[in-house]
Amino acid sequence: RYQRHRTLISYVEETARRAPGAPAVLAGDRVISHGALYAMAEAVAAQLADRGVRRGDFVGLHAARSTEALAGMLGILRAGAAVVPLDPTYAANQLQVIVEDVPLAAALVAGPETGEEADAARALLGDVPALWMSAMDMTAPAARAWPEGAGEDPACIVFTSGTTGRPKGVVLPNRALADFGLDQPVIGLRADDVMLHASSIACDGGLIEVWPALLNGAALAVVPGMKPAL
User: What pTM was estimated for this model as a whole?
Assistant: First the structure.
C-alpha cells in the first residue's frame, strides 16, 4: 500500500522479511530470492557508508542491465543516497555530460577491474571514488542503523537522450516511483508474477520494469545487457 512518506527501499526490505524465499531475479540459470537480493543491497550499502556516502548524496552506477545493477541500485538507496545510472552501452559523450552535471560522491562499477571496460569506466569517472562490485564482499553486514529517509528524498536521476540538445537530468523522488510502482491500474502485478527486464537501467523503460516488480514482491526476468560502447 502506497504511503507518500516511505522510501523505495523500505518496501523492498518489507518484502524481504515477509517472503524471503520468493524469487526476485531470474537471470540465466540463477534465481535470486527477495531475501538474498536485499542482503546484497545491505552489503553494498555498508561499503558505500564506510566510504563516506550519506543520505542525500548522489552515487553513480556504472552498470549494464544485470543482477549486479539491481543490487547496486538497491544498495545505493539503502545507504540513503540517490542512483545516477551510467549505462556503459550509452555513447561516451552522453555519459560525460552526466558525470559533469551531477556531483557524484562515489560510483559503483559492475564489470571486470581490468581491460578495456575498466579503463573506460576509470576515464569517465576521473576523480570520483569508484568501488568495483566484483571486489566486494556481498555477505550481509552485521546489524547497523540505516538512514531513515523520506518520500521526498531523491531516488534517482534520469537523463534525456540529448537528441534535441544537451541531455537534461530529471530528479525523481522516492514517493513518485513508489506511487507509480504500487498504483498500477493497467498492469496490476501480483507477487507470483514475472516481469521481463529488457530496458536500460538509465531510461524510463527500466523504471517501469523494475519498480512495479520489486515493490509488489514479483520477479524480474533479466535479459543480459549489451556489450559496452568502447
Answer: 0.94
DSSP, collapsed to helix, strand or coil, labels residue 203 as coil
Tell me the pLDDT band of 230, cut-offs 50, 70 and 90: very low
Cβ-based burial of 68 (10 A; exposed 0-12, middle 13-18, buried ≥19): buried
Helix (H, G, I), strand (E, B) or coil at 13: helix
C-beta of residue 224 within 8 angstroms of C-beta of residue 200:
no
CB 197 within 8 A of CB 210: yes
Length of the chain: 230
Other beta carbons within 10 angstroms of residue 57's beta carbon come to: 19
Per-residue pLDDT tens for 107-141?
999 988 889 989 999 999 999 999 999 999 888 78
Q: How far apart are the first and last CA of the chain?
A: 43
Residue 17 and residue 200 in contact, taking contact as beta carbons nearer than 8 Å:
no
Q: Are 108 and 72 in contact (CB under 8 A)?
A: yes
Spatial strand order in the sheet of 130-132: 130-132, 104-109, 58-62, 82-86, 154-159, 169-173
